[in-house]
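User: Predict the structure for this protein chain, please.
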Amino acid sequence: MTTRTANGFTTIDQDLYAQAFQLLDPTPEPAAPAPVPVILAAAPAVHRTGPVEQTLTDALAFLDTHGWAKHRLIHPEGARCSIGALRAAAGTRNAAYRDAGNLLLAEARRQHGKQWQAIPAWNDHHTGAQVRGVWEAAIRRAHHLNI
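Assistant: Here is the predicted structure, written as C-alpha cells:
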C-alpha cells in the first residue's frame, strides 16, 4: 500500500519490496568468504661478501694451495707468509688489502697478545695451526661486519 506524503515522496512497504526482489532473484549468491590476509615473511638477508672478507678468504685459499712460509715473503717453492698471501690475493695495495691486514693483525693481537706490531713478526713466531686459526677468525669477523 502506498500513500502520498507532504514532501512528494511515496513510502514503500518494505515487506512488499523484499517479496518483489525475491521474485526477481530467487537464489541469492552465497556471500563471498572474507579474504584471508596474506602475511609475507621478510626475505632472509642475503650476505654479500665484502672486499675485506673476499681478500682474506682468497689469501687463505692461496696459503692452502701454495703453502705457508716463515721468515720470508715468498719461498722459492711458492709458499708465502701471511703478508705475501695478502698481497697475492689483493693484487695491489688497495683499501681491501690494507683493511684485511689491519683486521688480521687485530685478530692476531687479540689471540696472541698485544706485543705484535706487524703481521710478519707475528707470522714468524707462531705455528701454522695458530696462524690458520687467526686467519679463520679474521674471516668470520669480516663476514660478521659485512666488510
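Helices lie at 14-24, 51-66, 82-90, 95-112, 119-124, 128-145.
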